[in-house]
Specification:
two-stranded antiparallel ribbon, 2 domains, homohexamer, Hypothetical protein af1432, 40% helix, 321 residues, 10 helices, OB fold (Dihydrolipoamide Acetyltransferase, E2P)
């Protein structure tokens, strides 16, 4: 009997005992003449998902379990319609005594949130222009707590715990390179743009454990781009910085133009060198991370990843040279 | 000899003496072997434009006259390449003694600016919700002085002195009708949306006597939609209104969504009933005014107006029933 | 036991007896080893829909009931997969003695069809130009009977009994306002355009009780826009009006251009002031009615309406001030 | 001295005497200190165009000559800015005694109009279905006189005398082939569609000698597609054919759908096999004729034709194998 | 009892015995309390498909049958949810002794593959230019074996056994007609373009018995257009033909441009007369075949075909005159 | 008198003597009654352009000078219509004795061509996979000589001497950074993609001194993307590398997909991680270079660059912090 084998490693016939996260749960009924309740589940750990059926679910069971609940499961791995599935034999909720944490069971960025936040804060501190630094810092403080967990998007890219912070950090690295390669770029502005461009996403989206559950009312009615622009105004007023200054103008512009086109959500198009750079740094990091993330969850024996919506609905090929 | 006949009424062979505005001026040289200076002009009054040539221009003349300068002209109306043109015989700058004002010579809204401003202020005062009213009032005060002259657009529609105020006033009329017809609409929100939707245009565009000369740096880099959104934030902070309140959320949304689509400049799409109404009220007023304005400047003997860019580059037919 | 409670008001555990309309019906079989027939139903009244299961359906039952059939039902309201559902205990077809009418059970315009038809007829009679009036009248007579029930569209807007007549009446109100606000518009033409623009819809679409079941062959192969244009020709010929007259030209143009763009179905673009007005009046009324209709069917405890296809697939927010 | 050499054959230094058509004419003035009138001309014959200057034009000359006027010219061919140009020495209007006709000087289809009209009439007579034949014949009679000269388009394709009739005849040939190749197509319908599809173009466009001068009011406000559809209705009424018959339905559909997409002007999309065939036959004939016409006017020493707007603004390569 | 009646002719109550192809097969389980295995099948012959259920499937049965396997079936035709379905009573795999072949049970072009291949080879031999002929022949030899079965597309058109060869042959017929009608076209080039344009499809797509199962890696990463272009290069090198010659240039261009637009997959747009012709010949043949194929599978009592994706998602009308 | 002052530094009233490049030249005639020849010129050096007039041009002068000819000019700088212009007093062709070279007078990359070529060759040598290296080397050798001067585009970006080599070198730098940041990328493939992606541009475009004069026939009919793909095939055949190998497949794919979308010229979309990276590296380098190049030619006193077509026709703002 395998104890807490990672889901990725399960195979037909395995008997398992271990802790899992309930990602989806639905009470269903068999279509027999006397319908019978059962639970249709998706179990998850940090390595992936597997569907499961609990045929002997009682009324109490149906009321006990819920999405994002940690459980201990005993079961049997079977092949059903060409896919692996767990037939649940016993299941109970995890207790404090089990000593496990939900964060062990969810997908997250390859670097820890604490470290990511710390790198971003160093970048903020390194901004040489006082007004840029204090405005960026003001905005960052608004979401710092949420930043630990916030994903960068619902499903497109960096859609996991710490995804947004990770996206910012990688973009900062790329920005530094580009500023070295092209000294006519203003490093303060570009770094500020990187940190501010998606800064309102943790308020635009309602997420739990790195998974976006919904968009907030503000998110739907204003959108993260305009929210961030308004935070800059708020920061300038509260910090006593002239709203008409070129610094404030530039920060607004960087945020507002970073989606490049109107149909992608930007009310103005890039018209500062740093705004042009910001858009392409953002795009490149997002697209490459989509590919890297997809490679991570594509089984070793598959030649092609699943379809990636953000890459024109194409699959990516795992070329062997 | 006709004294100050309106340009619209001039005909071949007329001898004229009168005051005109120089709308365009360029010093040119004949291509003769000994090139000679002359002035190529466009003269204007409130009824239209006419081109003019001053063949005997001296060096002093060339330095004396400039665009938007009022002049007294004696000349002869001639047909040249199927168009009327003034052959200038004498020309001098108007002086204080002439007792004329530039505003008599420019195109302007059919209702006086003072009256338009006053109607808008009444509408603001009629807003029953205190927070809506004070925010709208705060934003309006920012541009009230410019509002007298500001056009609503560079060339699309209401492109004349007082055009923006006139656009707002006609939209307020339409809003009142729609709110009576459909009581589920919130009249305060819709009226606020009407007043705020283009409120930043006088700062987005640099205009003189109702003609847009250029866009400001803020106008290009932020755009009037995001500028107005930021003014709402500024107003709320300075008036002590909760930035998270639904009132503030709604006002942001009305302004941000009024262009309807991303490719038309709106970062979010209408998601309040009043935002849907605002977009169509704005569109209907702008499009019908384009037609009405074009009818005004189309000669009586023409069946078709010039091409109207904002109406899919179509001409409008002057149907006789 | 609740007698004929409106569907909108039902709750878990209610026992009901009442009359309902069968909106959808399908005979299904359980997946048990000895499959058993049952009826899967959607019951409706004017307040909404609810799904229902009749587990004890006999072969006779399966042959007896059909879509749009009125029935008397005894049943039990239960929660199934988070939704209310009626477990049917007894069901029979309604009879003449029950004294009920299908029109009591369907969704319909907020104003009665008779009144709407009468308002449209008054508007026709008020047309001052004889040729306009007789052509409009000729076309209206073609569909007057269907106009009582005809919806304005399959699902986009005014998709209910009397929807088309209601759409026309609201547009007439808006037209009157616009003609007062902008006297350069020809009121006869605009009103004629409003009445004619969708006049062929009752023939384009096959509808029953205000619900579109299908498009007719003519509807698919010619479309309501070209059909109405051809009716104008037919009217002119039969009424002895010159086919080359400006009146006929204008009426054709109003109908043909009212969808504004080629990709929206209009073979020509608006080139009369009244055609520009007609398009925006049509658009504004349709869009605002979509919102108002959706508000009507959104449960009180929901903040957002369902997605509205005709509004860029957006939901509308029910803002509380 | 070369007498009436074709324009295509002129070269630098030629002295010419001959008859030409004035295609364009403008009275201009030299920019010398004492401006002097001259005539700026474009002369044409069936082989092409050449620009010309008449420096010694008197006031009488300026009033004498006009566009589409036949003239006898004596002149000298010179190179000016890398192009050939005629310096006019003497010019007079052609008289009856000169015994020349304007049709000798314009571009026209490679087959004579009489022959083309006769082929189309034979095709109409060959239609086996009486109702199809009489409707097509009715519509054809409306424009038969104009059909001799009418071009098929303003500039896209077949833009010359008899161009429309030639387009129809070539399409009839292609239709016959396709009907033989695919017997499931109804030959009567396809041939009727070919003859009717552009039948209203001679009324949509105002042309002279095969050159489109303008669009008619009907052309702009209704368009040739809807005009032809209305002619079918008129024909059916006047011929006593049931407006609801499938024949009438099919003819409407063929005409209305032949531009294939809404954005190309068709209010409905092809939904009959013959409508699908008609669109592609029309497209293929138009596109190939564009190429063939352009080859005809491209000088022998050029490898590439001028840009062809109807072929995505591409030039076509004159490949030598 | 009907023996091997074509599926198209089956009706309710028929008892059948005959050979069929298993097109789809899935082992399912009843939802009864003790789930029971059964087989859910789609049976096919050359006339169409029918679904079937084998309720008494044993474990052995489940392992025995697979997609594309030929079987002998005894069963009963029943109506289920308004559709015919076979209740399987007995089923076994066909054996060699049964003397049947899979090709008798699949959909295929109306002309036999051998004949089609032979016509194409004659066309190749008839190419008068040696270099054109040898290059075309080289490319054709690469896929000649696959060409017997290869469909022309996954589902759009000619999606059956021999479909590609049939498409080429019909296009050759059309090419011959067009070259006769327009002698300025180079017949060698056009015929070569027809044969080469889709020549790499048998390698781009993985198909079995005329049904596309997947795209190959080359197909996804290079695409049939660029693959064919590269085969031309390969042919030229191996045949010693100058890569810079106009022949090679023209063949590349014909292949590369035949989809006409970038968004349809062509990196260059047609710029040779023959390339323009090729595109429209390809489009016309594909579109008309879609219609003809759909007519073939639409039941006689249906007025409209199913939706055809390649014709703007429209259905085609089966008009009765 | 200023000797060979850079054009950028000229001011009104300067008398100059120096060497310049004739960039444009046209013989014109004055419009005086006795027309007189003169030369209308654009003079250039590495710092910019200035227009010039030579009023005393003789027939011999007109035949002597031509575009791209180096001349010695004596003249006077004057303001004409608000722009500086040179009134030429004396002009002669430069001779060998003058010891000047055309390359001193043209715009070129900031790094010398020799150095750029050498860097690219080092990058090729550093490719660890033998097949990748030899194929890349084979293709590079085809254009190595042209690579010294070839621009990367006609006007979009890097449109100067050595522009293409400079583009490749900057992209190599960026590639190296990205490969370090994301080790899952194959460095050989990405570097190969960078070197090959525009490798056929020197053959697609006909350029002189870094300025594109025209596109070649191959360039128009095949395009640089498909040309490069065919060179890979040629290389593989001549180097004996398997055409079906994954290496060859990957190199084809990188080249073919680098424009990302069909409408931008790529017949396939990126489906390898390195292809995704290549597209964004290419885009970022091109866009940032456009900005940097425009900054270089924008006068110091201008706040905004000229419009940049490749950046959505926007100007870029020269922000002063």
């Amino acid at each position: 009997m395998s104890i807490n084998t990672l889901i990725k490693g399960l195979k037909d016939g395995d008997e398992i005992v271990g802790f899992y996260l309930i990602k989806e749960i639905e009470a269903k009924q068999t279509n027999s003449s006397i319908p019978k309740d059962y639970l249709d589940l998706v179990l998850a750990d940090s390595s992936g998902n597997i569907s499961a059926k609990y045929w002997d679910a009682s009324k109490t069971d149906i009321e006990t379990f819920f999405p994002m609940c940690l459980v201990k499961v005993q079961g049997l791995v079977q092949v059903y319609r060409e896919k692996l599935q767990v037939k649940v034999i016993r299941i109970r909720k995890a207790t404090e005594q089990d000593g496990i944490s939900i964060t062990d069971f969810i997908r997250s960025a390859p670097v820890g949130s604490e470290e990511l936040i710390s790198i971003i804060e160093q970048a903020i501190n390194s901004l040489s222009n006082d007004e840029v630094r204090t405005i960026v810092s003001f905005c960052f403080e608004k979401v710092k707590d949420n930043m630990h967990s916030s994903p960068a998007a619902k499903s497109h890219h960096h859609a996991y715990y710490g995804g947004l912070a990770y996206h910012i950090v990688r973009m900062l690295e790329l920005s530094e390179f580009i500023c070295r390669q092209r000294p006519f770029l203003n490093s303060d502005l570009l770094k500020a743009g990187v940190i501010l461009h998606d800064i309102a996403k943790p308020v635009e989206m309602v997420s739990e454990y790195g998974m976006v559950i919904d968009y907030s009312n503000q998110g739907k009615l204003i959108g993260h781009i305009s929210m961030a622009s308004n935070w800059i105004t708020e920061a300038a007023i509260k910090l006593g910085i002239d709203l008409q200054s070129n610094i404030v103008l530039a920060l607004h512009h960087l945020v507002l133009s970073h989606h490049n086109l109107g149909e992608w959500g930007s009310p103005v198009q890039p018209q500062l060198p740093e705004a042009v750079a910001l858009h392409y740094i953002d795009a490149m990091d997002a697209k490459l991370q989509m590919v890297e993330d997809m490679f991570g969850i594509t089984p070793d024996n598959e030649e092609w990843t699943p379809i990636i919506r953000g890459l024109q609905n194409k699959q990516i090929f795992k070329l062997k040279l």
